[in-house]
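Field reference: sequence -> structure
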Amino acid sequence: MRRTSLTAGILYLITFVSIPTLALYSPVTDHVGAFVLGAGSDTGVLWGAFTEVVVAVAGIGTAVVLFPVAKRQSETAALGFVTSRVVEGCLIIVGVVSLLSLITLRQDVAGTAGADRASLVTTGHTLAGVYDNAFLLSQSLAPVVNALCLGYVMYRSGLVPRILPIVGFIGAPLLLVSDIAVFFGVLDRTAPINALAALPIALWEFSLGVYLTFRGFRSSSPLLTPPNADAGIPSPIPSPRSGDGQLDERGAALS
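Structure field:
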C-alpha cells in the first residue's frame, strides 16, 4: 500500500510539469499568423507539447495505480475516475497533435515558393482553435469529473484527511461554471477569473500528490483495516467422522 500511494503521489506531482506551457506557447497564442509565417522560435512550443504528453501519460497512470484501492470503496467511482482520466489524456494528445501540425505547417509549407500566406494564417488559426477547444474539454473540464469521482472515494474511505477532497468538492462546481461560460462564449478562455476558478481543483490535486508521496494512505482507513477474527464469520461445517456423531439434513452435528 505504501508503494501504491507513493507511485500515485509522484504521478500526481508529475502532472504539474505542464504549468510552464502558458509561457512556452505564447508565440502561438499571442501571434498565430506571424508564428506560422516564420516569426519567433518553435523550440518552446515543442517543449510545451512534450510536457503535455508527459501529463497525459501520468494522469492516466494515477487512475490505473489507484483503481485497485479505490474500487474497495466504490467500483463505480473508481471506473468513472479511470474513464475520465483516459478521455482527458486522449484529448490532451489531440491538442498536442494540432500544435505539432501547426509547426509542420510553419516549417514545411510556409517557406515554399508560391505559398498562399493568407491560407497559411487561416489554417494556423484553425489549428490553434483546435488546441484551445481540446484544452477546454481535457485539462479544464475533465478535472471536474476527476475530483468528484476520486474525491468521493477519498472522503468516504478516509484514506487521506477529509479536508483534501472537500477542497475538490468546492472547486468542482466553480470550475464547471467557468467551463460552461467559456463554452458558450460568455468568458474568454484566458480570462483571469478562469484561473481563479481552477485554483481550488489545482490545490486539491497538488495537495493530494504531496500527501500520498510523503505520508501515504492513513492506516486508520476502514479499507486498510484487517478483518476482525471475532466478526462472527461461520466456521466450516465439520465432516462426519467415526465417533463424532451424526449430521442431520441441515449439517448440524448431533452429539
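Note: The chain has one domain: 2-217.
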